[in-house]
Amino acid sequence: MKFRYTLALGMALTAALPALAQSKNIPQVTESEYYYRSVGIEKVYPCDEGYVVSYQQGLNKLVNVYIPMAWFYELSNGRGEIVYLKSGAMWPHLDIYYKNGEFAKVRLYLRRDRRHITWGSVRPGLDLGSYFAGVESISLEF
Q1: What sign does the CA torsion over 55, 92, 39, 125 have?
Q2: Fewer CB near the terminus (10 Å): N or C of the chain?
Q3: CA-to-CA distance for 20 and 140, rounded, in angstroms?
Q4: What is the pLDDT of residue 59?
Q5: Three-class SS state of 57
Q6: What is the CA angle 43-53-40, rounded to 5?
């Protein structure tokens, strides 16, 4: 007899829980003014002017993005950030953040070990200054 009462009470509580869980003060969902795009990095080439980052567009085309070194200094209001990944962590990638549709920040997730396959080197004497001159934002091509 006690078993039946316990079972009936348990079933009644189980049936009532969804009604108790609902609140009348449900907060409104608002869209953020920020959004981001993320792409995997094929190669990153550090140089004096900044970083040349290659990523894959479509199935068989590599596209370069030029990120000035000045963006990684505090004086540039933190427009660039590097996060070093541990060995065995996720694949290196690039996140670009936009605020109200305008470029806001870039974050590079790179392997700390420079021997990783995604690290490259720029040929000595190669002048890349013209590619970095006047770069104010990044727009990814897909």
Answers
A1: negative
A2: N
A3: 47
A4: 86
A5: strand
A6: 65
pTM: 0.74
Residues 42 and 39: their CA atoms lie apart, in Å, by 9
* Structure-token match 């806001």, residue found: 104
3-class DSSP state of 32: coil
Residue found under tokens 């900044």 = 50
Spatial contact of 121 and 134, defined as CB atoms under 8 Å apart: no
Which of 105-121 are b and which e, b meaning 16 or more Cβ less than 10 Å from the residue's Cβ?
Answer: bbbbbbbeeeeeebbee
For the record, the structure tokens of 12 come out as 């009644």
SS3 content of the chain, % helix, strand, coil (to 5): 20, 35, 40
Confidence of residue 44 (pLDDT cuts 50, 70, 90): very high
